[in-house]
## 1
Amino acid sequence: MKARITITLKPGVLDPQGKAIAGALHALGFDSVGDVRQGKYIEIEVAESDPKRARAEIERMCEQLLANTIIENYAYELEAA
Amino acid sequence: MKASVIVFPGSNCDRDAAVALEAVSGIAPALVWHGDSEIPPSDLIVLPGGFSYGDYLRSGAMAAHSPVMREVVSRARAGTPVLGICNGFQILTEAGLLPGVMMRNATLKFICRDVHLRVERNDTAFTRHFTEGEVVRFAIANKDGSYYAKKATLDRLEGEGRVAFRYCDAAGKISDAANPNGSRRNIAGIYNESRTVLGLMPHPERLADPALSGTDGAKMFASLLETLH
């Protein structure tokens, strides 16, 4: 199966990169731009056909390495490879 | 004092730390490769600065799971002093030996210059050659040096006297202007509960010899030598 994992900064955690992106978009004339938050996107192929077990594996990966849960949240979608 | 300096792929201050340690102790530290699972008997373990694993994912995140780190964590929990400098501090937080996390500098820039620090206490193995409240000059060189922790964690660190160093001006005043990177409460370094693990972003080893234009950092290594022999 394939997991598509999105890691984002928790609300309230300062994101200077997101702020810089917002500034650059404003400079380009995109006046509609409000708050910008930057995150990470990771795709992982998992040799596991049972969705329940695959979910458990992905969550352990996120908790142990992929996200720093002090400052980051993670979400993921699973699809058949 | 027998010290071990851990070398990760991408470490670049391992030799500097070894030179500074040998200068005070006369004993060359063991350089231990990250893939090793054994560390020789050591009075002190140093996690040096650098860019372990190219700072992939998050600074220190990969190194925190290196084979050698299981042994570092185990020695630290058993009371062996551990000093994490710069990337070493990032690794200590990612490994869970110190609370909080290092974030991108508020300026988004890599900052490489000398800073003033206030020594918050001088009764630890790392600081006994300083005086309490002394203002010292160390070098910083990092892009992810902004210390962040939840308010409750920061309050606990302060309440337990676990802040080791704070960014200040030359007169010792703690202010936003003297904070180079947006670190919460100007924190530059913290201890674990037993004050045997110290992580700090500034580099004591870079100002540890008159030829390097400063010797304030040498006091940390002299402190360790006196404590640990």
## 2
Amino acid sequence: MRRRSIWRLVATLLVFALVAAACGEDTGGDTTTTDGGGDPTTTASPDTTMADMTTTTGAQPVDVCEATVGFMGPITGPVAFIGEVQLNWFNYALDTWNEEMGYDFQMVEGDNQFDTAQSATLAQQFLDDSAMLAAVGPAGSDQVDAAGAVYEAGDPNFTFISPSSTRSGIAAQYTGMFRTVPTDDDQGPTTADFLIAQGAQNVFMVDDQSSYSTGLADSVEENLTAADVTVTRESVSQDVTDFSALVGTIADDTDFVYLPWQVAANGQIFANQMAEQSKEAVIFGSDGMDSEDFTEAGSFIAAFAPDIAFVEGSESLLDGYLEQYESTNTFGPPVYAAARVIFEAIDSVCQTGATPDRASVQAEVANTDQADSILGSPISFTEDGDLAEGRFFIFQIEEDGSKTLVE
Amino acid sequence: MEFFLQQTVNGLTLGSVYALIALGYSMVYGVLKFLNFAHGEVYMFGAFAGYGVLTVLGGPSALIVPVWLAITLMFVAAMAVASGIGVALERFAYRPLRKASRLAPLISAIGASFFLQAAALLLFTANSRSYDAPSLIPIESGLTLGPINVWLVRILVIVTAFVLMILLTWWVKSSRVGKAVRAVSFDTEAAAMMGVDVDRVIVATFLIGSALAGVGGVMVGLVFGRIFHLMGFIAGLKAFTAAVVGGIGSIPGAMLGGLLIGFAEAYTTSYISSTFQNLIVFGLLIVFLLVRPSGFLGRPELAKV
């Protein structure tokens, strides 16, 4: 009996050890930004960094400036790796803002699970919360559509800034929508022009069956075929991890494989399986592949933001973030930028002595004119709510996994 | 020919994994006549157990033990963890409902599936993990079959799957517990009256079926690389399809079905389009359920009239 108890204890300890080990290291969602961010022990000074980043913040805190801001993102569900990082960056933005300004802004968190129905429900909850002035999110364009329709019908003055929806034209549909990332109208032609400039004649393209991916693939395909580049288009769900049969269909004369995917780890599997079958085409990944999970040397990556570790003035912000949170990826910094836009808009209203409401906050957001931001570029919006000076960056991955800006 | 051969190897690898998972579905159905929809999640936990061992041993690029030992330990851990979860499911989610209507354990299985997914999300977060098998066994290593080179990991996966399937067949046919499993599968009441400990047989069925799923999880991690908390869902559905196509309740049927689904996926992608991959696979499921519900090797249900 006693021996059995000992065995049970040993087995339990072993299981705990295994779980701890499996939890210990993860590769998903991390990016190269953690590598080049300077001394990780350096403490960020929010006062200094915020002053560097912004131009519209009022200097004197106002005691009565109170606000609740929402965050909606896929905290759980199939792309929870995006939502987790976005939530972390939102919390980081809120904490540093409150500390810097002496305010006590509150947040309400909504997990839409990357689901449209859930997004609509949360949007209604946000609208019904009279204290809530604006929100960051949702992440995906389909979810933006679902939430946007509710906001538009319920209160067009409610402002929501998407930190990662890139579908072209969507911001024009909703009065209150803004975004801190460029659109597929920028990414598609940028990608196609780059491939053409590289001398691409045959491009193999695989979308991941999401609206993000198919829209982007359509745009790149259209631009490539207009330049007489031969495009072979395929489609595969990101729930699968075996692409070997698909890789087998890549013709030997293919120059580039274009993967507009949101799961970078799948891109690495694709690259491994290409190597396994001696396929020599070069992979070009969209912004969703800009992650530490994809490190295939020689490949190219498009990103809607530069690696903020190398953005002057953003290194200390990144260090401060990494002191509190384990990892980051491309989807994080635009959330910080979006949150700052909202916070500063609220503060601007407060500075006039007025009590901020949804309409006044929206007017201030529309007038945003940040000369610099965490993304290393100015932030202001077009009449539709798109980022006025958004552009995509193209990096090449080096042998050691680092990235070199090539365009 | 090179193209066909390459795609055949691809299909065989994928089919081997499906076959291992399908065996668990089939064994449980054979004994209890219900579908354990949480089986895909058992496979997922097996994959994470293997990853845990890999991490403890220093990770793929800094192993502190020889590769063969690391892989063996990963398989052992995956089998142990998956078996433990399988047996726990049987004890707490299914046994209390054994005398309830057939719908009750099915709903319980779906609930258990979501519970395990959520548990994995909490334990491992939503971030995917990579076995990074090319660091363990270089992609260039392997066997040259005519014009193509087959990666050693693929060979390992295919051979391991076939060895385990042969061992399982032997175990069911020749061992004392295996014979009891067949007896319970054929007629539970009669087996009990003949002195077979039905509870023990059912536990053994879950234990073996889950262990095979655990092995499948490590195989997927090794050959395809990425593991994540939702990986069991689609794999589970494909394995279920394999079990139905082969003949649910039949062990050789599960193997055959797994391989057929693997080949169907590979050849659909090769000769039609990857877009139609799932359409073809799940189309097969519908066709078999309508036309031949007992599958290729299943036993048709007989009802006394």
## 3
Amino acid sequence: MPRPDWLPVRRSKETPAADAAMWSKCPKCGEVLYRRDLAANLFVCTRCRYHFRMHAQDRIESLVDGDFEELGQEVLPRDPLGWSDRRTYPAKLKADRERSGISESVVCGFAAIAGHRVGLAVMDFHFRGGTMGEVTGERITLLFEEARRRRVPVIVFTASGGARMEEGMLALMQLAKTTAAVARFMADGNFYLVVLTDPTSGGVSASFAFQADIIVAESKAMIGFAGRRVIEQTIRQRLPDQFQTAEFLLEKGAIDMVVDRRSLKETLTHLLEYCGP
Amino acid sequence: MSNNLIVERERGLVELERRIAELREATAGQPLDMSSEIGALEAKYQQILRELFGRLSPWEKVHMARHPDRPTSLDYISRFDRFDELHGDRHFRDDPSIVGGLAVLKGRKLMVLGQQRGRDTKENLRRNFGMPAPEGYRKSTRLARLASRFHLPIVTFVDTKGADPGITSEEHAQSEAIAVCLQAFTTAAVPIVATIVGEGGSGGALALAIADYTMMLEHSTYSVASPEGCAAILWSDAGKAEEAASRLKLTAHDLHRFGIVDEILPEPLGGAHRDASEVVTRTLDTIDTVLARLTALTPETLLEQRYRKYRRLGEWQAEGLEAARTAP
């Protein structure tokens, strides 16, 4: 049951955390959802169909048949610029690792989806806003190189604020590196499929996210090159709510289809049947 | 008042420059020997130049790269033997913030492309301050493919704050335009030489900067984000732009150290615009030398080397890679 407004929150540190683990509030309609029900519904609000941002582990579990053979998990971030702003970069990495349970903004590996062997890369917005640093680029490159050797399709789930500023130009160069790996993979006739999830922008959208054979987007995901705030500041007006949503991109002809998460696995399976090996 | 730090600093020099010129003019053809006075003034002038511009901080370089008089892409391209501009993306329109076309440089036929900003307000409006729209990147993709088909090397000049962040650009799929442009440059089976001549702003710059050989003018900058944008996001304070500029490691020397830039082209004291003609001459000479070397390679070698060049940036140590490859 949701906590009534009049009940004062107890000062104990465990209580809100325990509550948070059990209950989630829909950021769209405000409905308070029992976490287990939400998970069973693939993290889609049962009331308004809002698609929650998924953790990489949950995403993988929701899709693959059995085992997930992880690739590149030993590739871990360093601090190439010795970065510090309001916090040091290593401190941010540590906090995100603890909060998200993953070691970088992407989890890569091989698995089967409805019997089809695929290479899978799942980006996670909960780690540094899904930004792409050296490790993100390296893991994705390793995945495409290995999938090319194995001659299996690759599916990438994007969720990213763009290139990671704390790694400077080394982060930007990952656009070039991943692009080169994707191009080699595709040149050999392998199938590349992208699922754009909320949000996908900046350097990731301007590289491997939009280089796929088929581009699917989750319903209502925000997708664009420039961030909403940047555009609003540039034009000095508020943008319509629909702007940069998956549905908007579909109408403009930038993507192939918009899919409700609950039918995503079925859609991916069909697409793999058309274009897979 | 200019919002450019370097322009502001140059104001103090104008008076001295005027006095030297006046003295020269007054003494020209006169029996009066003023050469020692002129010499003294010039020595002082040089000394002030060194004090003002001898050691530029990253933030000062950001301003130097944006200097309104700094040579732009067309200043280089206009010094080629020939330039036959090609227009349009064949879909929607021609984007004047990227110029491109067939050209001849020192007798060598090639394709040239560059982001083009304006010198004055009117030209800046026409060229959208050098911030390309998707149409500009689609034109670049088209020309890179054309070059590849006819075995013409590609020469690019990079000078942009970044890709245009406007409503129309989003509607026309800016992301896709850049992503595909990156792909075209990655796979073009001809030599590519890129020179960052001004500002290299993020993905919008990178789209024309994937190359077999990357050069950078000494006071150019090349960055994952503008210092202002970075400060606004990471510090929530645009006033921290100067600090962001030094942390981002966006100077030619930093990027050379990281292996992202292959060669630094020196600039005269006070910046490229103080002797634009000489800077253009030396840049074109260097491009020619590099092209002579690259055109000797087979397309297969070229593509393999280009792949390796980007592959090793942020590459995990050998044992990590092996472990990753042989994982069950």
## 4
Amino acid sequence: MSRYLVLSFALAACTSTEEAARVDLPVSTAGTSFAPAATDLDYQVSVERMSVAVSGIQFTIEGEMHTGLAPPGTVAHPGHSAGGEVTGELPGDYVFQWSGQTRPTLGVATMIVGYYLGANFSFRTAVAADVPAGDPLVGHAIHLSGTVSKAGVSKPFDALFDVEPNTNVIGAVFEDEINETSTETLGFVFFPTDPSEGDTPFDGVDFFTTFTGASIEIRPGSDTHNIIRRAIQTHDHYGVVPQ
Amino acid sequence: MRSLLFIPILVTPALADEAPLRTVADPDKDLLRYIAEAEAKATTTPETIIVDDGPAPVDTPSSGVRVVTARQLELTPHKNADDLLRVVPGLYMSQHGSEGKGQQFFLRGFDAVHGSDIAIRVGGIQINELSNVHGQGYADLGFVIPETVGGIVSRKGPFDLEQGWFATAGSIDLDLSIPEHRGKRVGYELGSTNRHRLVLVEAPEKGPAAEMIAANIMHDDGFGVGRGSEHGSVIAQTELRAGKLRFRPLVVGYWSKFGEPGVVAIKDINAGYFDRFDAPAGELGGRSQRLLTGLGAQYSQGDDDVTASTHLGWRGLGIEENFTGFLDSAEYGDARRQMHRAVTASGRISWRHRVTPWLRALSGIEVVRDQIVQAEQRITGAGVVWREERALSASILSGSAWAGLEARKGRWTATGGARVDTLAVTALDRLDPMRSGDGMASAVSPRLAIGWRSERATFSIAAGRGQRPPEARAFTRRASRENMDTVVYDGGDPEVTSATALETGGELRWDKISTGATVFATWIDRESIFDHISGVNALLDGSRRYGVEAFVEASPLSWLALRGDLTAVDARFVETGNPIPGAPRLLASAEARLDLKPWSAGLAGRFLGPRPLHHGATASSSTVLDAVGSYTRGRWTFALQIDNLLASSWNEGEYHFASWWDTSTPRSEIPRVHLSPGRPFGARIGATVQF
């Protein structure tokens, strides 16, 4: 009997460890144009070009955190600090560029299969190797250009932002079921208008009062820079769209 | 006065009609007596057993109960007290450090980590620690000398009124007594991992089973790298009588040192960077200490039975470990040091009053006061502190009260009632006093169990609720998030985690065989945890566990006892349907005990089915067979124990997370399976002389 017992156990013990299934998916920037953002001071801000120097792109699943019972006034969101678990990534340094044209693939992300609900990345300071010679992004983290309009008056604007080292976007909007047969491209998008709350990074800026010239130039150190930077580095204005 | 109890032939722990199925409500009082009865019933000839007078144990009908006697434990392969718990059906333990560190427990679909969901008592004293720095409910059994364990009663589910904090999955009571081999004993054990263990026992031959002084000291290099351990412990206990009063004073001293090797990523093994028995964390390790005094008392008069106990203990734990390499800090590494000191005092009183011949009123209160000081630091591999992460002092006051009724009428038994458990915490954050805070948390647990029995069969159905308290650090205020968006989740209030459980089962008994099965279910609406990474109280979604347990016991020959049991559980989060990581889906064990004096032997085999891990990974299955054999001649007993008789290459623990040890490769935060290897084939020989 003991012999059969041992044999039964030996036969039963035939399964080995299985790593989680994973798939490689391309990552790029998405969207060919931005809808104008209507600010709280009735300006229309049309972003025509945007460049962001980033690193450490990650994709997160929600995990088992209970989101429906978050304390009043708070909203749970995925990410390292609130239950999101990193199960996909594209390591390295990249530049998100939105300029009205489809951008080439940034790289190939490794994704564990699962239901994704967020993306993370870090801002960084761009270096010369990131962009073509003469690109104003070098030495900065974000570059925006476009037009600001109000009451029939339009002015071009150009803005450069510096971001403190290790500033992260945690929980950019990203919802996708990824399985072993997935082939979609993960396209990063910028939302001039927060799709969930309707606010914009330009709220609180009285452009035509602050900048009385023919054009608007926003540079690090100014109050306008700090106001916009505070909002533009939050997760509300970024997302990933499967394409 | 002594009562006489006639015990017929039966197979342990199948119980005769005259002795109803019992779980032990107050182990400090009843466990010894209950185990003595069960042990007597394991004998193969009818006999009359003299049982000390004392109150009748509370009879909570539950099919998830197993009683294991001292003799059965002696014939169970083991090298420490942790191993003795493997007799608990459906319990899986995993050691991801080395001997001396608390085990990780899995029971009934719970990952109870280091004890958060299993209430463990030794000699009637709760061992789970409120707010240990290394994990809520941390239960360290390293101080227990195996030779002093007189029996184990395991109760799965929270159905007994006297099961308190942490009994969400169940509870285990270890009795400290030496019912056999009374007298003086000296034993020495030599193991293939350069293990040396010396044990001294003095148990006066004419004294009660609880009376003893025992000491042991051990050194073991451990298998592989970084798994060495040393410990020494002393347990002294006696029993005093003054009229109807019975006292049991207890003193314990314990010290240990153990390695913390870390766990190895399978991808690093495949790449040739590590061997499966390597210690990625190098020379990191831990130390554990305990001083404990206790006093139990019993008093019976007429219709009233009163038991009381008190204890005062000091506890120290220091752990240095690194599971993730350089993932978090490429410059300094991810090693951390945790330090915990606690002074704990407790008092407990239980009163049982017979209202009518068939009805008893049950009530009791318990108060525990903990004063803890703990710290957590990030350190380099050389032990240099580079960041303070936690410095907390806390006062914890836990109060519990319960009341209910026990009714016995004919073949029926029912117990029911409710208990209230409350926790008040004042937490001082020494790193940021502005974050200091206080608060309370409490929970009510209704419980009901109904049983029916005949000579050949037993049936029971039980429902109850168990509670896991929040840890002290959860009462600190939330971290400042002034630089973050205001909609970021910044944590909720600390909450008690409640598990509602239901079970029904039965048992059939014949002369030489018994079999039984239990179906159980447990639901948790929402689980409150303190997320140490983000520093917030987070709520997990609800979870549920459905399972079945079955066993067969047989005693085909007078000197042979066999047992097999199987537990299957489907444990999942309700919202996502994902399985609960780590919780075994299938666990089976088989035991064989041969007691043919002067020879005796025991075989214990475990089959662990594939386990779900985080994110869809799956842990391997394993089969392990351990053996013990002994021969007694005169005063001498010679023993041989063999670990992993089949020489299986098995993983005791598997985990799915990210690490980065080989810094010549690109850093990745994507989780991978890591393993903690199981014991390889090994042997220990021992000799014991009895005076």
